[in-house]
Amino acid sequence: MRTIAEELTLLVSQAAETMGHVGFSVDACVPTASAQHGDYQSNFAFRLGKHLKMNPRAMAQAMVDALPPHPAVVGAEVAGPGFINFRLSEAWLAQNVGERLAADRMGPPAPGAEKTVVIDYSSPNVAKRMHVGHLRSTIIGGALHQLHRFLGWNVVADNHIGDWGTQFGKLIVAWHEWRDEAAYAEDAIAELQRLYVLFGEKAKAQPDLEDRARAETARLQSGDPENVRLWTQFVEVSLVEFDALYQRMGIKFDVILGESFYRDDLKPLVDRMLADGIAVDSDGAVIVPLGDVEPQFAEQPLLVRKSDGAALYGTTDLATVYYRQKTWAPDKVVYVTDMRQRDHFRQVFAACRKMGIEHNFVHVYFGMLRLPDGAVPSSRSGLALNLKEVLDIAVAHARKVVDEKSGHLSDIERAEIAEAVGVGAIRYADLSQNPQTDIVFDLAKMLSLDGNTAPYLMYAHARCKSILRKAADEGASSGPMVLEHPLERELALAVARLPEAVLDAANSYRPNLLCEYLFGLANTFARFYGACRVLGADVEPNTTASRLALTAATAMALREGMGIVGLRALDRM
After folding, report:
1. Rounded to an integer, what distance in angstroms lies between the CA atom of residue 549 and that of residue 488?
2. Which one, 6, 353, 420, 492, has the greatest CB density within 10 A?
3. DSSP-assigned states of every residue in 159-213
4. How many Å apart are CA 540 and CA 91, to the nearest integer?
5. Measured between alpha carbons, how far is 404 from 210 in angstroms, rounded to an integer?
6. How far, rounded to the nearest angstrom, does the alpha carbon of residue 553 sit from its chain's CA centroid?
7. 338 - beta bridge partners?
8. pLDDT for the residue 442
9. Percent of the chain that is helix, strand, coil (3-state, to 5)
10. How many CB atoms lie within 10 A of CB 344?
């Protein structure tokens, strides 16, 4: 089933062909800014008139006259400098929503079927506690994961963890010098985190520690049994903690292939690039000149091997690209990292083009998460908020509210609701922002129950389900949808726009667009609920049946959209 925008855009295209204007790309119809101007708008006639040096309004009127009849449209008129505004038929809109309700899917069909996408996100460093600085990649990546899966893509979610490199040499030195066995037995990650921060502090006064760390790193990379044993131990305890947090946040990965997975591929890769002329020697180091494929990096080649023989992040990223191409042959690969890595990935993608790898690379970069004082969370400095503790605080806050407002529910039910609301509030507070903007980690604001928040959406869904339960208890059921009240029409239109919101969010890699849609839908339902009685002896049975169908459709749209952004659609709150 097409979206409403697709249906109307097709009509405009057919009108243009009737007028003899073929070969032009037709702009997609979009919702109008105000219901006073209809439901959807097309600017194609305006653009076409300008291009052909014709009066845009005259072009728009001619296009309106050429529109083929369609049951969806009850009105089309010229507006402004040459726009076409469409008004939808209430009967067609009701039928559209009713068919989606009957099909048990409000969202769009699955256009990604038989296509594969690899999504690289989260990627924390092991032997360190996940902190709030890891939230953005994890949560934004998780939403993009669910968006693509909802649209039918074969998704390979890869957690490319940082489990190799010089940090382990530092940690091994610190382990031998300052470890506390009892503390490690009680909380392994906390002790490893303490040792890592302590190394940084000690190294400021003892520069020889850095030399010792490099030596231990070299021993690890050469296969020293003791260092390999320690490294394996550090990775294993880290993955246990990561998995607990991911489960709590509803994040799932298909594979966890860290930097260490590719360590044996790096030297052969660089040697092959040298042999193929893709990479060249530069004073003992190896670089990939990029000016021929990306002029902006003419003076900034990609370094793939240092003069001491060490590989770099770019080397591992290229080996990762090769592995993914060979294993999954993806149609596209999406990387979700902070904006500081923009140039790095531009260089990597340019090097891939030079190597003949042309599949679609997408870097979804996001702004920084900052603490209220402006600082960026960092494990190295110890300036970080423990993610587990943040989630615990959020859940505890939610539990207080749930206990106050829903004391009639069992302790188990209240605990489940509090967990869903608390964790959901943290997720949604991030996802509802434009990914490319910096955000301030303000826990109090994140946990607010008012405005565009997770609890508000959850409550809207729970209210829908409450109405439907009460209707079932009273023997009422849904029936044909008839949109007579203005708010019935407005709500049905909001529900019908879910497919467009999902596609817009997926195509732009901006989950916040879906969040904006869900907030608007919840607001519209609140106004509908306040003005339109659903149940009651004074409500006509046919009206009750219609409004129950509309309420069920709203619940379905909320559930599908909330599921994509990682919120549990609670039946009770």
Report:
1. 11
2. 492
3. ---B-SSHHHHHHHHHHHHH--HHHHHH-HHHHHHHHHHHHHHHHHH-THHHHHH
4. 19
5. 55
6. 24
7. 366
8. 76
9. 55, 10, 30
10. 17
Q: Structure pTM?
A: 0.92
Q: Which residue has the tokens 């309700």?
A: 101
- Per-residue burial over 39-58, b if 16 or more Cβ lie within 10 Å, else e, is bbbbbbbbbbbeeeeeebbe
Strands 285-288 and 280-282: antiparallel
- pLDDT score for 381: 47
CA atoms within a 13 Å half-sphere pointing along the CA-CB vector of 40: 28
Q: How far is CA 333 from CA 88, 154, 320, 324, 336, in A?
A: 39, 12, 11, 9, 10
* Tokens describing residue 568: 């549990």
Find out whether 5 and 28 touch, Cβ atoms under 8 Å: yes
Neighbours of 421 (CB within 10 A): 27
In the structure encoding, which two tokens stand for residue 22, read together?
Answer: 């073929």
Q: Give the strands of the sheet with 280-282, arranged side by side.
A: 280-282, 285-288, 302-305
- The pair of structure tokens assigned to 257 is 């292939």
* Farthest-apart Cα atoms in the chain, separation: 88
Give the closest residue to 31 by CA, choosing from 81, 85, 80, 96.
85
- Give me 236's structure tokens: 């294993």
Cα 55 from Cα 81, distance rounded (Å): 9
- Which pLDDT value is given to residue 378? 55
Instruction: Please spell the DSSP secondary structure of 498-536, one letter per residue.
Output: HHHHHHHHHHHT-HHHHHHHHHHHHHHHHHHHHHS--SS
Sorted by where each starts, the structural domains of the chain and their CATH numbers stand as 4-88 (3.30.1360.70), 387-564 (1.10.730.10)
Q: Model confidence over 464-505: pLDDT tens digits? A: 999 999 999 999 999 999 999 999 999 999 999 999 999 999
Q: What pLDDT does residue 510 have?
A: 97
pLDDT for res 133: 76
Residues of the chain with pLDDT under 70: 111-113, 371, 373-384, 449
* pLDDT tens per residue, range 114-143: 899 999 999 999 998 888 778 899 999 999
**What per-residue confidence (pLDDT) applies to 445?**
76
